């Protein structure tokens, strides 16, 4: 465990020899840097197209989402971002990490103290300096493959023409009109983004004929075919177990069709959905008769989009909905942002925070603008006044949201991947405001870095934030964003505040593309240490404590009762369900708010868990994924999912499960005892597996590992397939006369090993090295040496065996065989008691799609007339004997306890042997626990949790809360 608290003067500068000093250019120079011959574009050598190869080590996660072609298009894009306050910086940070060719940050203004509320690359020492120039070195450190420049002079049309994308942030509307016309007339993508307090705006114009190459960004669907009619309106019927999943207007092509072979590889045909298993594809009367088989595969068709110019679109806007509970807001906020520009033109300032006079004037301007519309909107004047009250505010989380959305739109404009915003998006988080509002005098600037936030929430609220104690679990991509936002908000900047961050992982190179607090020279260091130091540099006033612990039962002596009871909340930034559900249970037990979030590609979700108000994270789960039958995996795979699951099972069986069991056998004295208690024939399988690993198959050298890999390759990719075809030849028919190899059964072909086939040799190299590593033998990646070894291995010729039975269905097989979040912090600190004051969110930026909803309330249960939820419990303080405990519930709650357990230990039950019952009844509860569990109660445990099964007065079973049994403090404390 290490602490970053008190380390405010830590030097975070990279080693001098690693500093980039070759990217400085004059403000007017060509930002493309086209004459440079160095590796400077997206990890690629310069060439006529800008990029041919991608640094897969750095961009590995992004490549899974975008693909190589989209990344190559991004590598040619030169981006101009105007405005270097918090929003402009957030956009620049994300785009640089994404890997465009160059980014130029334009700003003619100088840093002011309030900029520090959201601009994390500025410090107090930068006040008075140009914002763009002061941020330049920090931005360059993010990605050495992207050329980053600063521009401080006025924008000319010639200068603008150098860029593929222009982004305007915090810009006057006159500039939006003028640059909008230049961009639209010169085929330059334009994005306008702005935030005012808790309100945000994004506008996109990608030109009159913009091509989207992949609209949804999802893997193409495929379906196996049962029949295709020969008709004017041909109907394709899928196999019963295969829902096609297509939508009207989708396009498909075909493969493996027998008979109607003209469909194989045909031009994409438009789909008309007729049902979950059927769809139409138009006229097939001129084609051959269908015989059998076939796969229909969805085709991602390009889409042309015609964008209006800024001038035309602002007059006749088209909105994308960000919150279906606020469907009336986009037209009103469209007017509010325009009115704000007018107000600023009239007064050379924004409306004063929480000032009624300025708010009334803004309402008047909105009324005038609305009357000029062809179709006037219905105006909520309270909303417009609220907009005016906080328009002078600068909120880091809002800029993180709008900045992230804007950066994704830039990547769409560069790559043609995913559907862009058409054309206006408005987003607000007004639920975060206090229900009673803020007094004007409390929202005035005080010359603080938090003035932008004080303008929205007031000074008293800022003091509350300063003294919060938060536990951030995970320092990956989400964890880095949590820490950045918390530090800029001033969380833990007070005397009582602190942020504890834990992450057990080391920084890897692939992390640098998403986890922006880390730099190349940090690779190999602990994530939590580096992240803690990085945010201290952003805000030296905060207190950060860095841990390197896994959260789980094994660390409950660290994250104990004292630890959790001292917290104000927990923010999860985890990447696995087990850790999330564990932290969820801890937060429910200690009654702490939990911020839960996750991302997958372009998708993200946020869930807020509030004690006594909402359900917990574990209360609802995604539906279970459809399992794959064993016989399908082993013998009849027909989809990519089957091959992936087979490969995973193969890997875990060869290199994980058996090795772990062998290790436990050698190190854990109770392993045999536990194994023998397993059901069915599992004990025999486990013990035989251990014997095979330790004795039968144990290699003595790396050469033997190569031999094992070669034999295993032959077994998996030749012998088993040959045996399958011996049992079921390719021309086999069933007893009904239909071909056996039809429908979902696809006839395989055995492979012959070829040492000159790179994929075959890859397998041998990987398998041999994994096996050597498993046994602690020296590894060897010399492909030439391994190729020589494997060429000399004589593999016995496989002879198929008669009488081998292969399961065709799972029932046969079973006969033989007995797994935007920080906004919520504002809401939590406000202490809102209404469910509608909170929002859970789900977004898919690829579509784009936004959905926000109230959290579900905690489900209510009842015994007698007492309602309870998962947040309730029985509280029992001080020692009782078991007899007293049972009597207490009988007397105080009219509940007869029939069973009582603690963890996995049954302490009492109505069927307990009389001798054991008599022995335990007069023991203190803590003593009963120690005696039954045969373990001491650790000193850090302040309370025990008991689960009850009870009968009511009528003798019926009744569900009741758990019991928190608080132990007495040890003598002398």
TrEMBL record:
Listed pathway(s): Protein modification; protein ubiquitination
Active-site annotation: 631 (glycyl thioester intermediate)
Keyword ATP-binding carried by entry: yes
Signal peptide: none
Domain Ubiquitin-activating enzyme E1 C-terminal stretches: 838-963
Pfam families: E1_4HB, E1_FCCH, E1_UFD, UBA_E1_SCCH
CDD domains referenced in this protein's UniProt entry, alphabetically: Ube1_repeat1 (cd01491), Ube1_repeat2 (cd01490)
Alphabetical list of PROSITE patterns matching this protein: UBIQUITIN_ACTIVAT_1 (PS00536), UBIQUITIN_ACTIVAT_2 (PS00865)
Protein name (Swiss-Prot/TrEMBL): E1 ubiquitin-activating enzyme
Native source species: Oedothorax gibbosus
